[in-house]
């Protein structure tokens, strides 16, 4: 059955189209809300590091080993692309361990590669590694979440500066490097995560030195630098967002345990707050979540950090974790701006806004990373929330989007009693916020398009069950 109202996205289609955030008619979750979530779940390696570390394995001339890889769709897509290019990918002995053997890297046909068209944004990061290994690359049309235009101009400009010839065709992007790839000086117009990764993955084996200014320095990027360093790369991270890379002629393999997924951890924290619950997130680490924790506490949430302790002198070790809970007092309105690291992550915004609908007063959210990442608030309004979106920059600092007339600021008036609705998931993070809203609302909601959540949240249905949520397919 189709939703009574296609709220927060277009009506379901019977097969995916237009990217990793497409809908199918059968992926419906019926959620009986109003029960606080209680219990314990675990987060694994960060989606936004794991997929990049997998791409890095292509650069080595020896096998690489990655632990704690979550079973999510983005990982499957990158695995498929690596295998198409001759990388042997096998499961290791530990749950979540993958081994990549790049001994026989080979070309794939455009038809084979196009099977992955529209499924993820990661393929763009294969440019540098494939140029180094094969001298040419074909990149299919990208996918990823529909959260604005998501241009790739910084990537193309950087690749051209390294010496790549980039031809954009109707089927995708063809690249060659007739005179090889050479170190260069670059300055990004904005500290883009993907473009910084593009530069790193290309510069490590380019001839000479690359200097990147205005680089992104998210923890996932620093972790990617650790991966590349283990492979033999020489990368210096200077102050003021400057990264210097000394190209080397060959790289080996790596063995790496990624940083935990701080977006997933914050999503469960927001779920605890919005439903009046108490969730222990095993694997979550304080250091990469400091900005989130400050906001969580300002809203009135409580948390307790337990540091990881390695086994020592015969005593067993202890896994790190953070317990997040609603202490029972009224939640407080806050003003926040999303920003690049160390600011408040744009991906933390959507789950937290659901909790802000329960806070007394007017909360203000200024989204400064993506121009169209507040569309999902319509769905929350259909459930009883009072959220107005504005074109003005309602934060302390004017951002790129104020001048360009995008609705990128929100005012959330609370507290609002949420009631059940039929919802259509528009993208990954907004999708999780829809799910939280359905869990917090009184009554039975139907959430369409939940398969999108599999892109970035491992086993989310099993985790919901472990937390006492009442939800079932269809
Ligand atoms: N931008 C350009 N031109 C470019 C590249 C980026 O104008 O060539 C702009 C974007 O339009 C955006 C801003 O720069 O306004 C930041 O984009 P960025 O390149 O940093 O984002 P990304 O690399 O495409 C990654 C994550 C996103 C996360 C952002 C910001 C992955 C696979 N994706 O995207 O995560 O929101 O960084 O931290 O790492 C998610 O996990 O759901 C997700 C969307």
Automatic annotation (TrEMBL):
UniProt keywords, alphabetically: Cell cycle, Cell division, Cell shape, Cell wall biogenesis/degradation, Cytoplasm, Peptidoglycan synthesis, Pyruvate, Transferase
Localization of this protein: Cytoplasm
Residue numbers annotated as active site: 145 (proton donor)
Residues noted as binding UDP-N-acetyl-alpha-D-glucosamine in the record, renumbered to the chain: 121, 347, 369
Pathways per UniProt: Cell wall biogenesis; peptidoglycan biosynthesis
Class of enzymatic activity (EC top level): transferase
Reaction(s) catalysed by this chain's protein: phosphoenolpyruvate + UDP-N-acetyl-alpha-D-glucosamine = UDP-N-acetyl-3-O-(1-carboxyvinyl)-alpha-D-glucosamine + phosphate
NCBIfam families assigned: murA, PRK09369.1
The name this protein goes by in its record: UDP-N-acetylglucosamine 1-carboxyvinyltransferase
Native source organism of the sequence: Phytohabitans kaempferiae
